[in-house]
């Protein structure tokens, strides 16, 4: 059964998205991915989003988010395979310097840093970004009206 996860598109006033830079302890492969994580039993998406934003970036006040995407995904990291159902929320935030407040031991071993990315840079980078089509998806969000309901971005 897939684990429910929340993923956050933290966008600053210049339409840059905050991504986490991490390294797989087993393969040493590096990647970039949005803030977020598992939703705990009994926890709402909003509560999970606020908790993850605080733990991973130190952002204490997370503005209300807008549901934009959903995705079913299987990923492998640190020798583990995990099936997740992701709900993606877009949050407009003031630009800030991330300072993790409460990384798990696992995250502390894997997180290398953070960077605010422009959609066009994500679309052309040779670095590994998850999801791989994030630059194109973000460009679409920024140039069109937000969807009425979350759009499924699962790639098959």
Question: How would you portray this structure in words?
Answer:
Residues 1-141 form the Nudix hydrolase domain. This is 8-oxo-dGTP pyrophosphatase MutT (NUDIX family). Keywords: Hydrolase, Magnesium. The protein has 156 residues and is α/β, with parallel strands linked by helices. The protein has a single domain, classed as Nucleoside Triphosphate Pyrophosphohydrolase. It has helices at residues 45-57, 105-110, 119-124, 134-143, and strands at residues 3-11, 17-23, 30-38, 66-77, 80-92, 111-117, 151-152. It is globular, with a radius of gyration of 15 Å. The model has no long low-confidence stretch (mean pLDDT 95).
Question: Quick summary of this structure?
Answer:
Helices cover 22% and strands 38% of the residues. It is an alpha/beta fold.
Secondary structure layout plus pairing:
Elements: E1 3-11, E2 17-23, E3 30-38, H1 45-57, E4 66-77, E5 80-92, H2 105-110, E6 111-117, H3 119-124, H4 134-143, E7 151-152
């Amino acid at each position: 059964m897939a684990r429910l996860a929340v993923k956050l598109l933290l966008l600053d006033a210049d339409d840059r998205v905050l991504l986490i830079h991490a390294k797989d302890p087993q393969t040493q492969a590096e990647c970039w991915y949005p803030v977020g994580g598992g939703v705990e039993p009994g926890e709402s998406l909003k509560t999970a989003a606020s908790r993850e934003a605080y733990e991973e970036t130190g952002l204490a006040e997370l503005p209300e988010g807008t549901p934009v995407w959903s995705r079913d995904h299987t990923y492998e990291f640190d020798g583990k395979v995990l099936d997740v159902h992701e709900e993606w929320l877009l949050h407009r935030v003031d630009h800030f310097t991330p300072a993790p407040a409460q990384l798990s031991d696992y995250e502390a071993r894997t997180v290398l840093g953070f960077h605010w990315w422009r959609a066009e840079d994500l679309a052309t980078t040779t670095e590994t970004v998850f999801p791989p089509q994030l630059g194109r998806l973000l460009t679409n969000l920024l140039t069109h009206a937000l969807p009425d309901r979350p759009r499924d971005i699962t790639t098959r």
